[in-house]
Design goal:
Elements (H helix, E strand, L loop, with lengths): L1 E5 L7 E4 L9 E10 L2 H7 L10 E2 L4 E8 L11 E4 L2 E3 L5 H4 L10 E2 L11 E5 L4 E2 L6 H4 L5 H11 L5 E5 L3 H12 L3 E6 L4 H9 L4 E4 L8 E6 L6 H8 E9 L20 E4 L5 H13 L6 E5 L3 H9 L6 E5 L1
The structure holds zinc ion (2 copies).
Length: about 325
């Protein structure tokens, strides 16, 4: 099969012909139909996330159809469409797993990081961690649901029940979360890179009532803020934007250093927290909600061979919605 391989951090992806993966007992072999490109792929490719499997096939927003199944894999029919997320395997035995927090599993393995992912024509995935996908989304438009949507939703849930919600960084996650928040009756304030008029216009089109630069003040005190951009200085900025008792949630897996800030920025029972990974329950809940809320995703289809260009466009903030690779 054709695959785009990461051979070392910091090196461009290389197009290669490699053998089809052989599914293990609980795995399904999938023909990849679409695979979203996520900011986390960039963090792995750049070496900001340590010790990936190498060589590695990136990609953890995989939509595929079942081509074959391992001996113990009986959950899906041949030809059935499934989604593969970032959480690829958990142990089921450690403290967090037993406490229903498998997102924090001490031995977790992640798709497109420790397990080969979807920047390829085929992939193998543990069927117990795959999802059925809502039928209202075609393959390319379903792909961003699997990380941007899913993690975005978990981030929103962690913010409590805000009426006025700030969103910092208007990429794939934000474009889905904005629709979800509007469906729930929340007011959305979008903060983008200064001067990124296109992203601001996009946010307004999706239902934000205000969009402006992340280095400026919020137009009014916010109840909560979500940070999706991997930019540490946004943390004190978001804390300044929320009212006392407000929550700031960092939704990304990696961020540049957070600058020192006065305690007054946190004082007033403001809460600062992060979101790590996902649970399978998050996925089931979000995918049902996405359909009910009438979420639509905006995607830029990119041929598999141009995965490297898609990563560069993402790095420069040039993608409207999500880039999705098509084999
Ligand atoms: Zn575990
Ligand atoms: Zn992701």
């Amino acid at each position: 099969m054709r695959a785009m391989l990461l051979e070392a951090a910091g090196r461009p992806l290389r197009a290669a012909e490699i053998p089809d993966p052989v599914p293990g007992p609980h795995e399904v072999l999938l023909d990849v139909r679409a695979c979203g490109v996520c900011r986390t792929d960039l963090h792995v490719a750049d070496g900001e996330l340590r010790d990936p499997k190498l060589p590695l096939v990136l990609g953890h927003e995989i939509v595929g159809t079942v081509a074959a199944a391992g001996a113990e894999a009986r959950r899906f029919r041949p030809g059935e469409r499934v989604g593969v997320p970032w959480l690829g395997w958990t142990c089921g035995a450690c403290g967090p797993c037993r406490a229903g927090r498998e997102n924090l599993c001490e031995r977790a393995r992640f798709t497109g990081y420790q397990i080969d992912g979807g920047f390829a024509e085929r992939t193998a995935a543990d069927e117990r961690f795959c999802f059925r996908l809502p039928s209202g989304f075609d393959d390319a438009h379903a792909a961003p649901l699997l990380c941007a949507g899913l993690i975005g939703h978990r981030t929103l849930v962690a913010a409590g029940d805000p009426r006025a919600l700030g969103i910092y960084g208007f990429g794939a996650a934000a474009h889905i979360v904005t629709q979800l928040a509007r469906f729930q009756g929340r007011r959305v304030f979008a903060f983008t890179r200064p001067g990124d008029v296109q992203a601001q216009r996009f946010a307004l089109e999706l239902g934000a009532e205000w969009a402006g630069a992340s280095d400026g003040p919020a137009p009014e005190p916010l109840d909560a803020a979500l940070i999706f951009a991997p930019v540490g200085p946004l943390v004190p900025a978001a804390l300044r934007a929320v009212r006392p008792g407000g929550t700031v949630v960092c939704g990304g897996i990696h961020m540049s250093d957070i600058p020192a800030m006065p305690y007054g920025a946190l004082w007033g029972e403001r809460v600062l927290r992060s979101i790590a990974n996902l649970t399978r329950r998050d996925g089931e809940e979000f995918l049902a909600l996405a359909e009910r809320a009438g979420i639509t995703t905006t995607v830029e289809p990119v041929p598999l061979a141009r995965a490297g260009e898609a990563l560069e466009r993402l790095r420069r903030g040039r993608v409207r919605g999500a880039a999705v690779l098509l084999p």
